[in-house]
Amino acid sequence: MNCTVESLQGMCYVENLVMKDCTLIDTTLAFEYSSVDASIDSRVESILNPASGVIRAESVGELIREPDRIDPAKTQVICGRIEQESDRPAWLR
Question: CA 88 to CA 90: how far, in whole Å?
Answer without folding.
Answer: 6
